[in-house]
């Protein structure tokens, strides 16, 4: 699966401006609701949700996610009297800005955005500004299947969730290789960088601020810091100044060994996938390895495609569903969030012949019939089981790291050629 990626991420200055606007909207009284309080009884809330349409804003570039919503979620919601309108966006921040626009216009109820597929800096910025409806997840029947002490669930890129969003999917950064060309993939990040140096022109990565390219930079950051001390999850200028020099040194050293000698980079993961599919590079990368079997089945990737992760682990995170406080259809958005957390829909999401995205449910908490169903899911040979993918998983850094690292890459790597 993919996390709600940012196809075009704004630079640090844009993020700062957005945060300032959000906070000023709140201080101007944007956090005061004019709607009646939500029912505190789940049956009453579900009854109030009937007949409502949920405007679900989500990244529109993942065909698997889109099909899952249209073919699995929407019919299940319809049976409960709720309609789902999937609203595709190129960047999750577009949905956050729309909520902000409503609030700046004084629209404290009746907002256009009912539900957002979100995580990372988008969630953090909205939380700082009080955009999200909080304190509701305790009502949800399916929350009992979630491990509420799991830090990968309770922390969203270093930001405490604090009952302001519902977990939906897990993601794990991974590398993709063509086993016909690279029978034995590198086993560690150090071996990967050695392989790149020994095979000039056969590797590249998307240019930050593309989400996948940014994730690769953070993966190298964590690997380059392993010999000294782990990079702290919370951003500070001091931590950046201590960790970043080794990162830029490593990436600058790799640059002339990349595809087209690092003179240009793929604009996004899709462009990198095209290079891999055309045989121009021997590896690709993704935060959604569950999509690989589908790409092989469609003939996009060769049948010899396989997924691998370094032994020391890769970045992992959870993505969520958040309801804006001023949503027009809050009741239906909450009911839909709970429905998307149900064992039935989490199982449908996890099936390899479905979307193939990873469940957030704790199997030990599931009824026996669902434990058996999940246990019976067969992982295609093109990808690794999630337990193997997530072994030694490295928690994501705070979203505050993203913009400085993206800007640093542009200055030190792209501009330092």
TrEMBL record:
Q: Where is the secretion signal located?
A: 1-30
Could you list this entry's UniProt keywords, alphabetically sorted: Signal
Annotated InterPro entries: SBP, YnjB
Record carries keyword Signal: yes
Tell me the Pfam families matching this sequence. SBP_bac_8
Q: List the protein's name.
A: ABC transporter substrate-binding protein
